[in-house]
Structures are given as C-alpha cells and as structure tokens.
C-alpha cells in the first residue's frame, strides 16, 4: 500500500467509530447495534490508537507481511497486520487503525494498523 | 482420577514420510505393536487421537475405520480431537474410561498423516486450531503466533535469540540415537543462528517438523494390570483450557492451562516438582518449551532458557526434557505427538530407553498442548516396581 493511500485510509478511519464485540472479539468500523456473530452483548466503542505489544515479520506464504499484537489505549489487545511500514517496527511504538479494504471485509476481523508518525503523536 | 490405571503396553511407528501407507495402516501398526507388547489379543474399546485427517486426507470418522482394522468385535471406538494436544487427550479419555470401571482394557492411539500435501494446505489446516475471528482472519499462523510470544518474551526478559538454542540443541542431540526420530542429526549453535527465518524471531530450528506417525498405548486395571511385568502407572491426569486467542489473555506469556493442569496432575499423584525425573513437554516451538517450563513451575518467570543452560535439560541434567528428541526433532505428527510422549516416558520408566535412557527414572511427566496454550493435557507416570 502506498503512503498516500494509507494516509487516506487513516483519515477515513478517523471519522468512523471503532467498536469491539465482547462475544467474538471482532473489531468493526460500523456503528452496529449487534455484531454479525449474533452475540447477545452490544459492541462497545474502543480507541483507534494503541501501541505495539509484539510483532513478527512473517516470511512463509506468498508475500511477507508484519503481524502485530496491539495494545489499544483502552487496554484491549488486538491482533492485526501492520501496513505501510516506513521504519523498523518496535515494541512500544504508537500505531493507529487503518481503514483498509481488508479491514472492512465482512465475516472476519481483518484489522490493520499503521505506525504513527512522531509528529502525529506529539 | 483414581490411580488405578496402568500402561500395559506401548507401540510406535518411526516418525517419517509414509507416502504409500494409509492412515488406517499406520494406526494399525502402532496398535498391534502396543497389543503385542502388552500381551493382549483383545481390547474392550479403542480411542483415536487425531487432528487433521478430515482436512488433509478427506477422511473423518476414524473410529470405525481404525477399529475394524484392530478388532473383530464391534467395540466402542471414537475419535478425540484437541488439536495438537489430541495425542495427550486421547490417553486421558481412554484412562478415564478405564478408571470409570466401564472397561478393563482399552487402546489409545494417536495418528496423523501430514506429508504429501502442500505447505500452504498444511499451514492453513493447522491454523484452524487458532481463533479464526481474532487471529487467523488477519493472517496469523502458529509460527506467527509463537513469534509474537517469543518477541515479547525477549523484550520483557531482555533475552536474545541465541538463548533459545539450548532447546533445539538438546532435542536434536537426543534424536540422534532414537531410530524412530524424523530428524536424526545434531543442531549446533551456528546451525540455529544461521537458519532461515519462518516468522521473526522464529527460525527454522525454533520450529518442529511436520511428519506422519502413529503411537499407541494399552491401558488396563485390576487383574490385567497386576499380571503385567512392564506396568507403568498413570498416577496423575489432568486437562485445562485457556482462551483460544492470545489477545484475550491478561498475560500472554503465562500459560494458565499449563499451570492448572500441572498442579492438578501433581496433586492427584501426591507428588512435587522435585519428584519428576524427566519431562516430555510440548516443544512445538522453542518459546513453548520456555513458557511451559515456567508456567508448569519448573523455572521462574523469564528464566527458562537460563535454567535449561545452567541446570541442564539433557539426559543427565537436573530435568531431562524431550529425551527422544521431542516434537522438535523426533517430529510432530500433530495428533499423535502427545501419545509419542507417553510411549517414550513409559519406555524410560521401564528402563527400556536404550542409549536414550535417563538414569534411575521412576517418575515422568508428559504435557501435550493444543493451540498456543489453549488446551493443556498433563500426565504423571510412575514406575510400578
């Protein structure tokens, strides 16, 4: 994903509320009354911001990618891909949710994050 | 569990690539070997441990498939699936069936055929045992999930990759003298450090190899057990679970199911950690060896690699582990690995481990794990005589 496209994705994500389903754990951008898993509890809003709890560069498969566990500002741990990496990922680096096609796909928790710039964090 | 269940016989096939042998034949070989070893011609029930047969060979419903190869009578025969912990879980289910009084003599067999399918197909099938919604849908595989744990472990405890090499080195060394092992070659520190990366920091020598294989045990009680000269008693058996995904855990570096099942099994046996002479642990990845040693209570948090290096996990060390090569080098036919552990531990306690013998072994612990610590099955075995 190009940096320009990623920046656009992040801007789009800014205007959409992220919710977390307590039953299946799925994160969603949609302001839904119920999660598609059919769980009884209503998804609750969570922060789009967090920091890297752990990460790995995955080499097997067709194309290498970075998978991360992100600790959201509210304390939840979330698994997601790290996109648009312009520097070496490190534990503790700030990230924010990226609104990508993969993230928006239904039927999965396909969630992606991107590294935040030092300027944005400041 | 009442301590009245004994292992009367054990059998195993070499862990290898069996292109021209069906899953049924593979299981039958291990079963017949175990029945011959036990000196029994009939069993009352058969339990089959398996994880991936449906996904990789298109065959499920293994009970009748394998039961009819072993027994002429219509005995109860069911499959037990606890992902990579299936091999331990099947022995637990069989031992509960015996302990309940329902049966006198029961066969438990773990079997898996993995070789021959594409790497992508096997990786995807294995990943089905992780949390689909939370993990797999984001591209997570078991190598990647273990890499997340290892990276965090290195960060929290200021550890380095090379600290983990001891687990691979010892397992490979032990496999060199095990004729049933898949990787009968040593692993040096240089081998470990220069191997290609699978999912950083997990390299090739941090991961166990997939394989085909079958292992079986005959369990019994009462007069059958009393007659057996090779008897090994199951004095503790416990299973515990944790959340399927890592992200749901308060502390991903602590395997709660491992802690729970270890303590429950030791309590049943009225034994302590210091009584364990050898441990067959679930070394599917080197980080799992470290986390298992710590969560089981054999090493303090963050110290397992140091414990392994300084106290010794080799056959004459303080706590010998993976004495026939473990999952790491004997090989990891996933649904069978836990049964191999119990077969190997029984051979150790019978004094029949040959060049792999742990001196004066009288109590052994085995631990089979499904997922990234989501299911843990722990057994304590004790020499009867």
Report, as a whole number of angstroms, the end-to-end distance of chain A: 25 Å
Rounded to the nearest angstrom, the radius of gyration of chain A is: 14 Å
Uncertain spans of chain A, ≥5 residues at pLDDT below 50?
Answer: 102-108
> Which regions of chain B contain 5 or more consecutive residues with pLDDT less than 50?
none
Number of helices of chain B: 14
Report the order of strands and helices of chain A: HEEEEEEEHEH
Which pair of chains has the greatest number of interface residues, and how are they split between the two chains? A-B, 29 and 34 residues
- Quick one: overall form of chain A? globular
Main pleated-sheet profile of chain A: 5 strands, mixed, barrel
Portion in strands of chain B: 15-25%
Strand order of the largest sheet of chain A: 4-5-6-8-7
Order of helices and strands of chain B: EHEHHEHEHHHHEEEHEHEHHHHEE
Shape of chain B: globular
The percent range for strand residues of chain A is 25-35%
Helix tally of chain A equals: 3
Q: Largest sheet of chain B at a glance?
A: 9 strands, mixed
Report the helical percentage of chain A.
10-25%
Structure commentary:
Chain A has 122 residues and is α+β, with helices and mostly antiparallel strands. Chain A is built from 3 helices and 8 strands. In chain A, the strands form 2 sheets. A 5-stranded mixed beta barrel of chain A has the order 4-5-6-8-7. In chain A, a hairpin with a 6-residue loop joins strand 4 and strand 5 (65-72). A 9-stranded mixed β-sheet of chain B has the order 3-2-4-7-1-8-11-10-9, with helices on both faces. Chain B has helices spanning 23-38, 53-57, 62-70, 86-99, 119-127, 142-157, 165-175, 189-194, 222-227, 256-269, 286-296, 304-312, 326-329, 334-349; strands spanning 5-12, 45-49, 76-80, 105-112, 197-199, 202-203, 213-220, 232-241, 278-280, 363-370, 375-383. Chain B is α/β, with parallel strands linked by helices. Chain B starts with a strand and ends with a strand. Chain B has 14 helices and 11 strands. The chains are: A alpha+beta (122), B alpha/beta (385). Chain A binds chain B through residues 24-26, 37, 53-61, 65, 67-69, 76-81, 91, 107-111, and chain B through 119-120, 123, 131-135, 137-141, 143-144, 147-149, 151-152, 155, 196-202, 245-249, 252.
């Amino acid at each position: 994903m190009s940096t320009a496209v990623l920046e656009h994705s992040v801007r789009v994500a800014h205007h959409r509320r992220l919710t977390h389903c307590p039953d299946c754990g799925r994160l969603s951008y949609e302001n839904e009354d119920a999660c598609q898993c059919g769980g009884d509890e209503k998804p609750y809003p969570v922060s789009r911001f967090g920091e890297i709890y752990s990460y790995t560069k995955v080499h097997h498969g067709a194309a290498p990618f970075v998978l991360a566990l992100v600790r959201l500002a509210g304390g939840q741990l979330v698994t997601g891909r790290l996109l648009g990496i312009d520097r070496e990922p490190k534990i503790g680096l700030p990230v924010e949710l990226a609104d990508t096609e993969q993230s928006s796909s239904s039927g999965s928790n396909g969630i992606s994050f991107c590294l935040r710039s030092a300027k944005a964090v400041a | 569990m009442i301590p009245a269940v004994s292992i009367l016989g054990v059998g195993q096939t070499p862990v290898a690539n069996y292109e021209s042998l069906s899953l049924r034949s593979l299981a039958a070989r291990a079963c017949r070997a175990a029945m011959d070893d036990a000196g029994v011609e009939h069993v009352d029930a058969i339990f089959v441990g398996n994880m991936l047969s449906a996904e990789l060979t298109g065959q499920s419903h293994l009970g009748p498939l394998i039961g009819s190869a072993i027994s002429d009578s219509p005995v109860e025969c069911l499959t037990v699936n606890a992902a990579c912990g299936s091999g331990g879980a099947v022995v637990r289910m069989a031992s509960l069936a015996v302990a309940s009084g329902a049966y006198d003599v029961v066969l438990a067999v773990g079997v898996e055929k993995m070789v021959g399918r594409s790497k992508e197909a096997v990786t995807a099938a294995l990943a089905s045992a992780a949390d689909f919604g939370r993990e797999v849908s984001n591209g997570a595989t078991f190598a990647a999930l273990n890499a997340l744990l290892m990276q965090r472990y290195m960060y929290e405890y200021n550890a380095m990759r090379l600290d983990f090499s001891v687990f691979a080195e010892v397992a490979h060394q032990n496999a060199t003298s095990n004729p049933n092992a898949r990787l009968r070659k040593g692993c040096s520190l240089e081998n470990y450090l220069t191997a290609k990366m699978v999912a950083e920091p997990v390299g090739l020598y941090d991961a166990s190899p997939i394989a085909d294989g079958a292992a079986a045990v005959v369990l019994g009680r009462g007069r059958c057990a009393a007659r057996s000269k090779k008897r090994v008693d199951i004095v503790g058996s416990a299973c515990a679970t944790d959340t399927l995904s890592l992200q749901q855990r308060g502390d991903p570096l602590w395997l709660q199911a491992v802690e729970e099942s270890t303590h429950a099994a030791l309590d049943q046996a009225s034994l302590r950690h210091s009584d364990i002479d050898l441990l067959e642990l679930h070394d599917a990845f080197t980080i799992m060896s470290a986390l298992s040693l710590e969560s089981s209570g054999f090493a303090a948090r963050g110290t397992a690699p140091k414990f392994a290096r300084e106290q010794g996990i080799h056959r004459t060390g303080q706590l010998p582990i993976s004495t026939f090569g473990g999952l790491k080098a004997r090989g990891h036919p996933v649904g069978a690995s836990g049964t191999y552990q119990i077969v190997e531990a029984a051979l150790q306690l019978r004094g029949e481990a040959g060049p792999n013998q742990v001196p004066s072994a009288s109590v052994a612990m085995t631990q089979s794990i499904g997922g990234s610590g989501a299911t843990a099955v722990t057994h304590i075995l004790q020499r009867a005589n």
